[in-house]
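Bug #77: duplicate submission created two jobs. Keeping one. Sequence:
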Amino acid sequence: MVRSNDNLFYGNKMNESNFWSKPYRSRMAGRAQNSILMALPMLAVLVFTSAMLAQDAPPRPAIEELLPETTAAFLQIDNVQESLPKLMGAEMLEDENIGPFVQRMYDEAEAAYTEVTEGKVGMTLEQIKDLPAGELCLAVIAPRRKDLEYLIAVDIDPESESAEIVAQSRTEWTELLADKGLTETVEATESGVEIYSYDLPDMPKKAHAFVRDGWFVSCTARDELEAVLARWEGLEVEKVRPLKENRKFVTVMNRCRPTEDIQPEIRYFADPISLARGGFRGNTIAQGVLAFLPKVGLDGVLGLGGSISLQSEEFNSVSHAHLLLANPRAGILEMLALKPGDGDPQPWIPADATNYISTHWDPMQAVNEFEKIVDTFSPDGEFQKEVVVKLKERTGLDFYEDVVNTVDGRFTYLEWADPETEFLMNARSRAVALGVVDMEKAKEVVDELINMRAGKDGKSGSSTVEHEGVPMWVFDPPSEEIQALREKRTKERVGDLPMRFSDPAFCLLDNSLILCDSADMVKHLIDVSLGNAPAMAEDEEYTQQMQRLTEAAGSDVPCAVTFFNPEGPMRQFFKLMGDERSATMVEKMSEKNPMLARFQTALAEQPLPEFDLIKRYFRPTGMIVTTDDTGYHMLAFQYGPSEE
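Kept job's structure:
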């Protein structure tokens, strides 16, 4: 039942261009009888060509006006033709250094499609690219007390060459699917819009679709599809409001709202609890897991969404994301609650780090909440008995005074690759660090923990050495037997390619306890701290990006920051791909993978360019996270290519 509502009229722009890169529908069509999601593109062929003439209708409302408030997941691309080329780095195609290689890889993908799929679809890859004319929306709907339903909506230009080819192939498609048991019904609504319903024996559900004003909409539930159409016609659907009135969706989108200069081209939203409830309906084990969530506070994860803009000349993308949480929080969400803190890199963070993540949290709060969780599933006092009491008995350390109160709540993760390393595989070293309140107290705690590890022979498994006068602890290497086994397994995986094996070490430096999987990395961090190597805190590129982020976020006291510089990892990748031993490994793997064999052939005929000629495309990206009563908000920039 629907009621008229003349106020639900919203205009929406319809953009046209000529690019769509992923042959998504072509891959699905070949297995249409196995999955309803794979059948939706097929319906575009059947339905769209049956309704080429657009009906008289009011302007199409925005998509959040059409979808129901029970939408549990949502992805909208404002203009597929304009956005996907940007996401795929279309600018590289115009670069004389990298363009030929990128084009060759694309040609190989197109050739593979032609060989395997084109005969089943009846359209070339270029024709499929040209079919969507503008907006695309994918949605998962979680009707109350029902299974999940799926919806796709896309602009299609009836005047395009691809649409004409689709129309010509309709008869062939109908005959092909009829042989597999396809049944088709067509019913017209009161407004004259025809709804097509299709059923294949192997499909778990029917599929339903309509076309209106060049907008193709298909859904696995007829009542949901009719409700979309009713809202389009200005009618109000009883008992189910539109998505724009979903409080979770509205809160998330408001926090990710665009600025006057930068408008989003991609939006997304998900309600994980609703998705899980609808997806696991009837599954006893899964329902038990869902019932478990409130006990640990994870039912407080209300939603996740965001927006991406690709319009800025300075940036490849500007992204907003918001994790919506219940307030007050409990359990795991309270245990891991981030808090505002100093976002500047510690003095030992190197400027040549490839990945840097730093967060702030409350150690005592985390421990107290963890104790509550443990005691929820075990006898009261189990945490005290197994952790607090046993630590005291074995080391003499007081868990709260000597451990919890010794750390200040700052946690840092770091990746770094030695530019002089000869290793190609696993070149990046990793480190984690905890901020400490008192360095002397921290050293006492470390010494006690090392003594606790000592075996019957009195060996602790580590030794103390100095680098530039700073002490560091290096773990003893594995036995010859273990080392030989490790090398054997590595050779089985990557052949003769050289591998960097971890040699763990740690140190206390600048009010931080730092643990690394490389002793050389510890030495490098010490050099940075002493001023013998550049620090990230003084790096112009990092400081400029963080300044932009804090200004945009409106806060210089984030609860987390991230910084990723892809130049180092990509340089290592190019070195790896240029190594003869890599070619041998790829050749062996391609024996069972035709697409990989194509890639290898293309790589031999169109080698990768020199990395220094294209490194301008691999620019740093950073993110800043702030917190408020609604949850955590993330703002990220990705810089565009630098000047030649």
